[in-house]
Amino acid sequence: MIDHQLKQQYPSDVIRELETTLQEIGTIQPVWDEDCQEYSYSHALYPSIAAPGDTPAECIQTYHRLLARFLAERMQGNLAPHVQRMTSGRGGARPGSGRPAKEPTKMVRLPVDVVIWIKKRPRPCGANSQADGLEKNKARFIAIPLF
User: Fold this and answer.
1) Per the count of CB atoms within 10 A, which of 10, 24, 37, 98 is most buried?
2) What mean pLDDT is predicted for residues 5-32?
3) Which stretch, 80-84, 118-122, 130-134, has highest mean pLDDT?
4) Of 28, 32, 29, 41, whose CA–CA distance to 2 is shortest?
């Protein structure tokens, strides 16, 4: 729930963005920090924002205030480039990028004597080598009966 002071302090578009962002973040659960002797909270989506507080409620209120200020600055384009890169969400895989998917394959382990027997068998279509057989038949795979 957004504090009444924040709603008065920031324009409605910043408040809408803040509500959307808080839904993305989910439940805010501050963690007790033994080194600092206070509660703190930070989220992976917004790593540049860390909110301290003496109580969990104060920590949550501070996080809302800092997040609203961060969003207002981002909407005005006042963020430093390294902070914008950290939170822009433009990294990672994109749909359609990378190498195309290949056909699924399956690896089969055979005893060595069976492999030797298969290699000694005559090649399809009287070809001298497996590559010659592929060229003549324009086949992608050679079926070898395993029984």
Assistant:
1) 10
2) 87
3) 118-122
4) 28
First to last CA, the chain: 69
- H/E element holding 135? helix 130-137
**Cα separation, 37 vs 80, whole angstroms:** 30
- Predicted TM-score of the model (pTM): 0.54
Mean of the pLDDT values across residues 40-48?
Answer: 84
Distance of CA 81 to CAs 14, 70, 71, 88, Å?
20, 14, 15, 10
What would the two tokens of residue 41 be?
Answer: 């909270």
130 and 76 assigned to the same domain: no
Each residue of 55-69: pLDDT tens digit? Answer: 999 998 998 898 898
Same domain, 75 and 114: no
Q: Which residue has the tokens 């600092």?
A: 36
Could you tell me the residue range of the domain that residue 115 belongs to? 107-147
**38-43 and 31-33 as β-strands: parallel, antiparallel, unpaired?**
antiparallel
Rounded-to-integer distance, Cα 80 and Cα 77, Å: 9
